[in-house]
Design a protein that fits this description.
Low-confidence stretches: 1-31, 346-352, 357-372
Structural class: alpha/beta
Number of helices: 11
Largest sheet: 13 strands, mixed
CATH superfamily of the largest domain: ANL, N-terminal domain
Number of domains: 3
Number of strands: 20
Strand order of the largest sheet: 2-1-6-5-7-8-9-10-11-15-14-13-12
Helix content: 25-40%
Shape: globular
Strand content: 25-35%
Distance between the termini: 70 Å
Mean pLDDT: 82
CATH class of the largest domain: Alpha Beta
Length: about 375
C-alpha cells in the first residue's frame, strides 16, 4: 500500500501539487474509483495516459472541459453536479455519485462489447452528460479516446474506429464518415425518418439511445439499421420499466440508484424491459376527447414533407383543440393523409394546414400556439 501510495503521489504531484500530501483516507477513496491503466487520450497526433493528459497545458475551452472530467474522476469529490433537460419535470440541478457514473459506464461497455484499447471518438461537448460519460467510459474501460472538437459534422477520418456517440443532427451531417465506425450511438433527441432511411446504407451498427441526465445517460437502446431494425427500446441489464396512470414511463434501476423515476414520456409498454416511445405528455393534444401525440403524426408524415414542419394545435370551441400542421414555406406540400392512423383522419379531426415561417416562431413552445 505504501509503495502504491508513493507512486500515486508522484503522479498527483505532477498534476496537483496539493494532492501530494493526500491522507490515507483520501487515497483509499481515489483508488476505489475505476481507472484502467490502458486508458489513453489522443489529441493533435499525441497520445497521453491519464496523468499526462491532466498535466497537458491548453487554453482550448472544450479540451479543458474534457480535462475537468478526468480531474473530477481522480479527486476525492464523490459527486458530480449536472443540469437536467426536463425529461422528468422542470429542468433542475442534480448530483450523481461516482458509483452511478461508473455503473453507467460499465453497462455501456458491456452493451456494445467494448474492450480495452478499443478506439473511440469524443465528438460531444463535455458540458453535458453525454460527453462526460464518453470520458468516464474511457477511464473505466481502458479505451483509446480520440478528442475532436465538437461541431455539427465530423471531419474526414483516416482510420477505422470502434465507437462514437453523436446527436442525430451530427449523424445526419456526417453520413459518409459513419462507415469508418463499428458502432454508432445516437442520443439527445428523436431520429428523423430521413436520417433513419439514410442510415440503412451505413455499414456501422447504429443504435438509438433512451436516457436522461438522472440515469447518467442511456438505460435503453434500439437498433436503427440493418435486418434487426426495430422501433422497440430494450432495457440495459438491471433496468425495469412500468407505467403511471398517464401511461408515462416509470424507471426502476437499482444499480443506478434509481427507483420510481417518473418521466413525461408516454410509451406503449410491451413488457418490463421493452417499450415503444410515443411522445411527450406535455405535448399531448386533446381533440374531442381523443389524446393525440404530435410526435406520432410527425413521424408518419416525415417521408412526404421535405421542409421544416411540426404538428401543434389551436383552441377550438367544439373539440377543445384543433390539430394544426405548421409547415415552413409559401406553398402547401402535397400530402397523402391516408398514411395516418384512422383516428387522425384530417376530416374527422379537423387537421388543416397553416403556412408560416418557422424561423419566426421557433422559440415558441408548441403548447403556446393554442393562443393563436
Amino acid at each position: 500500500m505504501q509503495n502504491q501510495k508513493a507512486r500515486a503521489n508522484s503522479y498527483f504531484a505532477f498534476c496537483y501539487p496539493i494532492l501530494a500530501q493526500a491522507s490515507d483516507a483520501i487515497f483509499a477513496a481515489i483508488m476505489q474509483t475505476a481507472i484502467h491503466n490502458k486508458a489513453r487520450f489522443n489529441y493533435n497526433n499525441q497520445s497521453f495516459d491519464v496523468m499526462q493528459f491532466c498535466a497537458f497545458q491548453t487554453s482550448v475551452p472544450w479540451l479543458i472541459d474534457v480535462q475537468n472530467v478526468v480531474r473530477f474522476w481522480l479527486e476525492k469529490n464523490e459527486y458530480l453536479e449536472l443540469q437536467t433537460s426536463g425529461s422528468t419535470g422542470f429542468p433542475k440541478k442534480i448530483v450523481l455519485s461516482k458509483a452511478v457514473l461508473q455503473q453507467s459506464a460499465t453497462a455501456t461497455l458491456r452493451a456494445f462489447n467494448l474492450k480495452e484499447e478499443n478506439k473511440a471518438v469524443l465528438f460531444l461537448p463535455c458540458a453535458f452528460v453525454g460527453g462526460k460519460m464518453m470520458v468516464i467510459r474511457t477511464l473505466v474501460g481502458g479505451l483509446h479516446l480520440h478528442l475532436v472538437e465538437p461541431k455539427l459534422a465530423l471531419p474526414a477520418l483516416q482510420d477505422d474506429v470502434d465507437f462514437i456517440a453523436l446527436t442525430p443532427m451530427q449523424a445526419a451531417n456526417s453520413i459518409s464518415q459513419l462507415n469508418n465506425f463499428s458502432t454508432v450511438l445516437l442520443g439527445g433527441g428523436p431520429v428523423p425518418f430521413q436520417l433513419e432511411e439514410a442510415l440503412q446504407k451505413v455499414s456501422a451498427k447504429v443504435f438509438h439511445s433512451y436516457g436522461m441526465t438522472e440515469t447518467a445517460s442511456h438505460i435503453a437502446l434500439r437498433k436503427v439499421n440493418g435486418v434487426d431494425t426495430n422501433n422497440r427500446f430494450y432495457a440495459l441489464e438491471g433496468v425495469r420499466f412500468r407505467q403511471d396512470a398517464r401511461q408515462c414511463l416509470v424507471i426502476d434501476a437499482p444499480l443506478w440508484q434509481v427507483s420510481d423515476l417518473v418521466t413525461n414520456d408516454v410509451v406503449e409498454l410491451l413488457d418490463d424491459s421493452h417499450f415503444v416511445w410515443k411522445g411527450r405528455a406535455d405535448n399531448v393534444i386533446n381533440s374531442g376527447g381523443i389524446k393525440i401525440f404530435p410526435e406520432e403524426i410527425e413521424k408518419q408524415l416525415e417521408a412526404q414533407i421535405h421542409q421544416p414542419f411540426f404538428v401543434g394545435s389551436v383552441n377550438d370551441a367544439k373539440s377543445g383543440e384543433r390539430l394544426v400542421l405548421f409547415v415552413e414555406g409559401v406553398t402547401a406540400p402535397k400530402i397523402d393523409f391516408s398514411v395516418l392512423k384512422s383516428n387522425f383522419n384530417p376530416k374527422k379531426w379537423r387537421l388543416f394546414l397553416l403556412l408560416c415561417l418557422l424561423a419566426q416562431i421557433k422559440l415558441i413552445e408548441k403548447k403556446q400556439l393554442r393562443l393563436f
